[in-house]
């Protein structure tokens, strides 16, 4: 556990080095969110009664997503790990006296957290200061905010557990490209990174909500604005724990099987 | 031109050496833009119209935007990677060769995987044409062709501009994506959806609206015939971008050894 923590800190400090890139990222994020809000307002103006969320809930959703994108998206990988599997350096990792799963989990999580810490603060400050219909609003209630924090942590972990499955699939396919190309666009859509799930047709939205992807971006962002409240909120948190366990166990099993047939040559 | 075809064939062959990987890349590109298509579809399925545009009309508009973008991206891919060319001082090598610089950068990389996006946008175009009640005349078909071709040129101009800027910054600037990827993503909807302010900016500053919004009005029978020829004005955007490129080249100091 302690070695994981040290690893986490190391990656974090490393990630905080790239500040210019972070600023450029913030500007992009802001522009993107702004355009999206303009679009949804146009939809809202046409048929407000078909809007599945309140407009200000949606706007908070968009800004939070933009701010937390680096943490919650499905495509931020630790690229070294893919290369490691490919060129056999994974053997060094296996020599270390800690579990491969724990170490890689910590590395990936640290990468994402370090990216998000730099980017989210300016976005939170600016969007919180925007005039009323445009800005990020406070959480629905203190309880909602607390639940949001818990849910955010869980969502980040579910996302990383999903990443690990993709890393370990590399033991079997060698090149991650095919898997990534096929799975990630779908994961982005289903996790609510492109549009909030309630905007999809009702049946599909319900299905995706209960899928492992629904436990990613969808969960914390809707809890924050109070779109998921009361029993629905509790249900979502339980669901997130459930999916984290399932994805974690699956990833672990995949690692186990992969390592069993792994054969590294050379010295 | 003959040389370009040689490079074209060469890139094609090198892609074909890894057929499976190429195939996956094409499918991946298809799926990426497919999820963008699903978003448009879901939203218009729920709300039916936006600013008076129906699903078919938005699809028509989106497919024009995406098609011109993927054309530009496929053939102008070399410019997308240009900051790397400068940083690794590979540009020095281009300077000593007896061919045009732009030509060489163009030949540097041709991305056939964008075929996936192109196919996706073709499918969308067909659906869009079927769903939207456009009364097709020869002039309207010509107008559609102009929209796509001139759109591709505008994106090419943007790539050229970013390459020119990287002479000064030496690195890729992420916020440049706002104007290329952002335009593709948000330009799926007719630009007046974003309000009059945005429409003015996209008419006079970066002329997206000239190949998207105005000719679309003509296609849908809501604008005068003159709008059909507005896409022809959009490539004028190449002029300042080319000037910036020339300035960049003249200020170039090698970054490596």
Q: How is this fold's topology laid out?
A:
The complex is a heterodimer of chains A (267) and B (257).
Chain A: H1 2-15, H2 19-46, H3 55-72, H4 79-87, H5 90-95, H6 100-129, H7 142-173, H8 177-190, H9 202-210, H10 218-224, H11 231-261
Helix pairs in contact in A: 1-6, 2-3, 2-6, 3-6, 4-7, 6-7, 7-10, 7-11
Chain B: H1 2-16, H2 19-47, H3 55-75, H4 77-80, H5 82-87, H6 90-96, H7 101-108, H8 115-131, H9 138-169, H10 181-186, H11 196-204, H12 208-211, H13 213-219, H14 238-250
Helix pairs in contact in B: 2-8, 3-8, 3-9, 9-13, 9-14
Q: Which ranges of chain B are low-confidence, i.e. pLDDT below 50, for 5 or more consecutive residues?
A: none
Largest interface, chains and sizes:
A-B, 34 and 38 residues
Q: What structural category do the secondary elements of chain A indicate?
A: mainly alpha
Could you tell me the number of beta strands of chain B?
0
- The best one-word shape of chain A is globular
Structure description:
The complex is a heterodimer of chains A (267) and B (257). By secondary structure, chain A is mostly helical. Chain A has helices at 2-15, 19-46, 55-72, 79-87, 90-95, 100-129, 142-173, 177-190, 202-210, 218-224, 231-261. Chain A has one domain. Chain B is built from 14 helices and no strands. By secondary structure, chain B is an all-alpha fold. Chain B has one domain (2-250). The chains are: A mainly alpha (267), B mainly alpha (257). The A-B interface holds A 20-21, 24-25, 27-28, 31-32, 35-36, 38-39, 42-43, 45-47, 50, 52, 175, 177-178, 180-182, 185-186, 188-189, 194-195, 199-201 and B 20-21, 24-25, 27-29, 31-32, 34-36, 38-39, 42-43, 45-52, 171, 173-175, 177-178, 182, 185-186, 189, 193-195, 198.
């Amino acid at each position: 556990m302690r070695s994981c923590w040290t690893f986490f800190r190391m990656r974090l400090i490393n990630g905080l080095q790239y500040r210019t890139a972070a600023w450029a990222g913030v500007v992009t994020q802001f522009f993107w969110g702004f355009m999206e809000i303009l679009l949804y307002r146009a939809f809202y103006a046409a048929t407000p009664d078909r809007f599945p969320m309140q407009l200000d809930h949606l706007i908070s959703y968009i800004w939070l997503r933009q701010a937390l994108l680096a943490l919650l998206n499905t495509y931020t990988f630790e690229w070294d790990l893919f290369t490691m599997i490919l060129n056999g350096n994974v053997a060094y990792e296996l020599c270390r006296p800690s579990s491969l799963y724990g170490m890689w989990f910590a590395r990936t999580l640290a990468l994402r957290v370090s990216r998000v810490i730099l980017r989210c603060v300016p976005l939170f400050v600016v969007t919180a200061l925007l005039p009323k219909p445009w800005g990020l609003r406070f959480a629905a209630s203190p309880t909602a905010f607390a639940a949001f924090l818990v849910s955010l942590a869980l969502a980040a972990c579910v996302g990383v557990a999903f990443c690990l499955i993709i890393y370990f699939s590399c033991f079997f396919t060698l090149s991650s490209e095919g898997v990534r190309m096929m799975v990630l666009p779908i994961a982005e859509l289903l996790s609510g990174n492109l549009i909030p799930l309630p905007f999809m047709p009702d049946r599909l939205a319900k299905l995706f909500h209960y899928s492992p992807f629904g436990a990613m971006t969808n969960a914390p962002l809707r809890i924050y604005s109070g779109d998921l409240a009361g029993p629905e909120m509790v249900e979502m948190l339980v669901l997130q724990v459930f999916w984290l366990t399932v994805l974690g166990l699956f990833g672990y099993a995949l690692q186990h099987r992969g390592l069993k047939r792994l054969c590294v040559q050379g010295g | 031109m003959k040389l370009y075809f040689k490079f074209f064939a060469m890139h094609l062959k090198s892609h074909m050496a890894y057929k499976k990987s190429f195939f996956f890349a094409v499918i991946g590109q298809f799926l990426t833009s497919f999820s963008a298509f699903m978003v448009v579809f879901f939203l218009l399925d729920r709300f039916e119209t936006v600013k008076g545009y129906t699903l078919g009309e938005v699809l028509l508009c989106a497919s024009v935007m995406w098609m011109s973008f993927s054309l530009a991206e496929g053939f102008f891919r070399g410019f997308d990677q240009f900051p790397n060319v400068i940083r690794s001082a590979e540009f020095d090598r281009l300077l000593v060769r007896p061919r045009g610089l732009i030509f060489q950068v163009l030949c540097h990389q041709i991305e056939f995987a964008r075929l996936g996006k192109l196919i996706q946008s073709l499918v969308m175009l067909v659906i869009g044409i079927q769903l939207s009640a456009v009364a097709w005349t020869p002039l309207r078909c010509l107008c559609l062709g102009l929209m796509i071709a001139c759109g591709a040129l505008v994106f090419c101009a943007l790539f050229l501009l970013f390459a020119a800027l990287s002479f000064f910054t030496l690195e890729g600037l992420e916020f440049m994506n706002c104007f290329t990827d952002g335009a593709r993503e948000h330009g799926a909807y007719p630009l007046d959806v974003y309000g009059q302010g945005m429409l003015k900016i996209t008419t006079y500053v970066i002329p997206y609206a000239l190949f998207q919004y105005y000719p679309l009005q003509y296609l849908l029978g809501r604008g005068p015939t003159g709008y059909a020829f507005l896409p022809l004005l959009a490539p004028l955007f190449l002029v300042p971008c080319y000037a910036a490129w020339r300035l960049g080249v003249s200020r170039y100091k090698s970054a490596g050894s």
